[in-house]
Amino acid sequence: MSRPESLFCSENRNAYVVTDKEEIEFNVNKLREALVKVASKELKTNLSYKGGVRRDVNVYFSSKLDMWYFFGYQPSVKYIHAFGLGWPRSMVSAIVEVNFPVKGRSHRVAGAFIKDSVGMTWVAHNGKIGGAKRGVGLKAFWRFYRGDCIDLWEGGAKRRFALIGYLSSDELPVRIKRFVLMVNAIKSQAASSSAHLHLFSTK
Question: Does residue 121 fall inside a structural domain?
Answer without folding.
Answer: yes
